C-alpha cells in the first residue's frame, strides 16, 4: 500500500516516472541493478536485507543510481550510516509530497544534495564519536591547493556555498568552482561525502566548530 501510494504520487509529477518496485532489500538490489534508475528511493528497515546493506551493495557494484534514503526513523545514526553506505540524500516519510519530488530532482541533478540541517547531523555524528586524528590521512588530500583545503574545511562545518563565499570574500560562482575542483580531485560524489572525508582525514576536528579549519 505504501509503495502504491508513492508510485501514484511520483507518477503524477512532471518528468518523474517510477520504473520499478521491490518488497525487500534483496529484491531492491536485483531490480536496481537490472533497471539502473536515475534515483532509488531506499527504505532503511526492510525484510531480508536492510536498506543500508542494500545501498552498500549497489555502491560496491558500481550501479549507476543515486540513492535517496526514505524512512520514518528520524535518528542521527541512520543519517550517518546511510551516508557512509553511499546514499546521496536522506528524507523522512512524513515530508510533504512536494518535498519528496524536489529531493528526487535534486539528487538526480547532482546539485547540493543535503540541506545544511542534515549536514549538521553528519557533523554531530562525528562529534559524538570523538576526535579522528589524521594518522592515516588520505594521500588525495595532497592534491588540493591551500584554498581548496580551506573550502573543504568550511563545507565540513556545514556552511553553504554562499556562506563560504562570504567568509572568503569571493563570489558564489568562484566558491562553486572550488567545490567542484575539490570533489573532482578527491573523487567524491557530492558535498556530503566531502564532509565525511574532511572529518576522517583531520581537515577539521570534531567539537572545534568555532575554530578555523586545521590543515594537518
From TrEMBL:
Protein name according to UniProt: Response regulator transcription factor
Modification 4-aspartylphosphate, positions: 43
Record keyword Nucleus present: no
PROSITE patterns in UniProt: HTH_LUXR_2, RESPONSE_REGULATORY
Keywords for the protein's UniProt record, in alphabetical order: DNA-binding, Phosphoprotein, Transcription, Transcription regulation
Pfam families: GerE, Response_reg
A single GO molecular function term of this UniProt record: DNA binding
Domain of life of the source: Bacteria
Any one GO BP annotation for this protein: regulation of DNA-templated transcription
Location of the HTH luxR-type domain: 137-202
Residues of the Response regulatory domain: 1-108
Keyword Phosphoprotein on entry: yes
Amino acid at each position: 500500500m505504501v509503495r502504491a501510494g508513492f508510485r501514484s504520487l511520483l507518477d503524477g509529477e512532471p518528468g518523474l516516472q517510477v520504473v520499478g518496485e521491490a518488497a525487500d532489500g534483496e529484491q531492491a538490489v536485483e531490480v536496481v541493478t537490472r533497471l539502473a534508475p536515475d534515483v532509488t528511493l531506499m527504505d532503511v528497515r526492510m525484510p531480508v536485507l536492510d536498506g543500508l546493506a542494500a545501498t552498500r551493495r549497489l555502491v560496491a557494484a558500481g550501479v549507476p543510481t543515486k540513492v535517496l534514503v526514505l524512512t520514518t526513523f528520524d535518528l542521527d545514526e541512520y543519517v550517518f550510516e546511510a551516508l557512509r553506505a553511499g546514499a546521496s540524500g536522506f528524507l523522512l516519510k512524513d515530508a510533504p509530497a512536494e518535498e519528496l519530488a524536489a529531493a528526487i530532482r535534486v539528487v538526480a541533478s547532482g546539485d547540493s544534495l543535503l540541506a545544511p540541517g542534515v549536514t549538521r547531523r553528519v557533523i554531530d555524528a562525528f562529534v559524538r564519536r570523538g576526535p579522528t586524528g589524521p594518522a592515516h590521512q588520505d594521500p588525495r588530500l595532497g592534491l588540493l591547493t591551500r584554498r581548496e583545503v580551506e573550502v573543504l574545511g568550511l563545507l565540513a562545518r556545514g556552511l553553504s556555498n554562499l556562506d563560504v563565499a562570504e567568509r572568503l570574500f569571493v563570489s558564489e560562482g568562484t566558491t562553486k568552482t572550488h567545490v567542484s575542483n575539490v570533489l573532482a580531485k578527491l573523487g567524491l560524489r557530492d558535498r556530503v561525502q566531502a564532509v565525511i572525508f574532511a572529518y576522517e582525514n583531520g581537515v577539521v576536528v570534531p567539537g572545534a566548530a568555532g575554530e578555523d579549519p586545521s590543515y594537518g
